[in-house]
TrEMBL record:
Protein name (Swiss-Prot/TrEMBL): Octaprenyl diphosphate synthase
Biological role stated in the UniProt entry: Supplies octaprenyl diphosphate, the precursor for the side chain of the isoprenoid quinones ubiquinone and menaquinone.
Taxonomic placement: Bacteria, Pseudomonadati, Pseudomonadota, Alphaproteobacteria, Rhodobacterales
Keywords in alphabetical order: Magnesium, Metal-binding, Transferase
Reaction(s) the record says it catalyses: 5 isopentenyl diphosphate + (2E,6E)-farnesyl diphosphate = all-trans-octaprenyl diphosphate + 5 diphosphate
Top-level class of the enzyme under EC nomenclature: transferase
Length: 337
């Protein structure tokens, strides 16, 4: 490879480089997803599933399974089944989330619950969960089954905890971390851990990859919560300010409330706890966050979790896949730099 080609390769987004490296495996995953989301008797199932699955998502979670397995020397074929499993779990949770949040946009498109109805979204989500469990059984590994089924339970628990914490200004950072570790990081860490386990990796590598996935998932969610108050619609795949309108108490809000004076706390109480939101309130929320350095402090935490993810990879083989995963952790937080 020439110097110019090396420079161009380094400049590409880590996710794109990872996708290219895993292209053949991902083709197999996508084929399996299309096969298993089919339904002989209920055509609405593939209609609703395809609307979300084929909407241009980055397929990050299944790629983490594939990358972890390949990094640990696995030759296949069951990493494909596990990658499809995590994508089905992820898609099912998105379908359910959009109903709970009454969302109207997902990945830049109208949500399934808006195009069809809430009942269809919930039931198709249930179908995808069932398909996920069928897929995770096929490799015949009880440990992998335990990892992924535990993750499914943890995700549901995280979503319920978020529902309990929503609109509650008493929510602290410890509770927020439990929420995002459940709703987001659990599937990231299950993806990397399952990939290592199916490859028969030693316990040190399994735990390293689990730690990487957990830290990456936490950094990813903190960044997503930050972008809701300062990102473009194209970057988000949703409307900027969705979390504010849905009155979610995310890390930037928690930090701003902790530093608020009585007048500012009254504002947060009105818009979050009471739901009395008026024109210009989103801009005021951003101004208060900037005043107290809430965004910068949350960004620092995201950077710290990304650094933990990269550090977890130190003992793994020094090869291109490891470098891509390390770069991916850096890229996740570079979106808010």
């Amino acid at each position: 490879m020439s110097l110019d080609e090396s420079t161009q390769e380094a400049a590409r987004k880590p996710h794109d480089r990872l996708a290219d490296w895993l292209a053949a495996d991902m083709d197999a995953v996508n084929g399996l997803i299309r096969e298993r989301m089919a339904s002989e008797h209920a055509p609405r199932i593939p209609e609703v599933s395809a609307h979300l699955i084929e909407a241009g998502g980055k397929r990050l979670r299944p790629m983490l399974v594939l990358a972890a397995a390949r990094l640990c020397g696995y030759g296949g074929p069951f990493h494909v089944h596990l990658a499809a499993t995590v994508e089905f779990i992820h898609t099912a949770t998105l379908l359910h989330d959009d109903v709970v949040d009454e969302s109207q946009r997902r990945r830049g498109r109208p949500t399934a619950n808006l195009l069809w109805d809430n009942k269809s979204s919930v039931l198709v989500g249930d179908y995808l969960f069932a398909r996920a469990f069928q897929l995770m059984v096929e490799p015949g590994s009880l440990r992998v089954l335990s990892i992924l089924s535990d993750a499914a339970a943890t995700i549901a628990e995280g979503e319920v905890l978020q529902l309990m914490a929503a609109q509650d200004l008493g929510t602290d950072e410890a509770t927020y971390l439990k929420v995002i570790r459940g709703k987001t990081a659990a599937l990231f860490s299950a993806a990397t851990e399952a990939g290592a386990v199916i490859a028969g990796a030693d316990e040190g590598r399994v735990q390293a990859l689990r730690t990487y996935g957990d830290a990456l998932g936490i950094a990813f969610q903190i960044v997503d919560d930050l972008l809701d108050y300062g990102g473009a619609d194209a970057a988000l795949g949703k409307n900027t300010g969705d979390d504010f309108r849905e009155r979610k108490v995310t890390l930037p809000v928690i930090k701003a409330v902790a530093r608020a004076n009585p007048e500012e706390r009254a504002f947060w109480s009105r818009v979050i706890e009471k739901g009395d939101q008026r024109e210009g309130d989103l801009e005021e929320a951003r101004r208060l966050m900037d005043r107290h350095g809430a965004m910068a402090a949350a960004r620092a935490e995201a950077l710290d979790w990304a650094a933990r993810a990269r550090a977890a990879m130190a003992g793994l083989p020094d090869e291109p896949l490891r470098e891509m995963l390390e770069d991916l952790a850096a890229y996740v937080v570079a979106r808010i730099s």
